Amino acid sequence: MDKQYPIGKFTTRDVYSAEELASFIQRIETLPHRLAAEVKKLTPAQWNIPYREGGWTIRQVVHHVADSHTHAYIRTKWALTEDAPTIKAYLEKPWAETPDTRMDVAVSLTLLDALHAKWVTLLKALTAAERQRTFTHPQTGKVVSLETLMGMYAWHGDHHLAHVKLISDF
Fold first, then answer.
1. CB-CB contact of 102 with 116 (8 Å)
2. What secondary structure, in 3-state letters, does the chain show?
3. Which domains occur in the chain, in start order?
4. pLDDT (mean) for 58-74
5. Which of 25, 95, 156, 163 has the highest CB neighbour count under 10 A?
6. How many other β-carbons are positioned within 10 Å of the β-carbon of residue 76?
7. Residue predicted with more confidence, 16 or 169
């Protein structure tokens, strides 16, 4: 098994079906509860174990998910309120090493719960035209639709949940 990508890498497509979009939203909606349930299986000592050699600790993974999904929510809002904005990128590795990533994971789990409640309410209300709105990533130059962002972050949550499971199932 590839511990870095235990569920495989995300691949984008130009078109997603209504069923796929509903699945993306459902996975985003349930992630905070699925992640919290998995983390509850761990001892506090296991939070500090990397999921793979050279990888982040489970504590860092949980805090990263909260940070990353906060960016995704903000990117959603930018795409809806500005005309094809160029978003602000961030450096994941240094973000995963700031002092707040040594906090109890409960803080980020609480943040995810509230954030996803807002984000899912927004995603469920989008029209087909709104889901086609885009932003540009400054580092890659890629133009990303909100539909693609939904798929990417449904995958992202499942991807890091699989990392936590590598330790909780150990």
1. no
2. CCCCCCCCCCCCCCCCCHHHHHHHHHHHHHHHHHHHHHHCCCCHHHHHCECCCCCCEHHHHHHHHHHHHHHHHHHHHHHHHCCCCECCCCCHHHHCCCHHHHCCHHHHHHHHHHHHHHHHHHHHHCCHHHHCCEEECCCCCCEEEHHHHHHHHHHHHHHHHHHHHHHHCC
3. 18-168 (1.20.120.450)
4. 98
5. 163
6. 22
7. 16
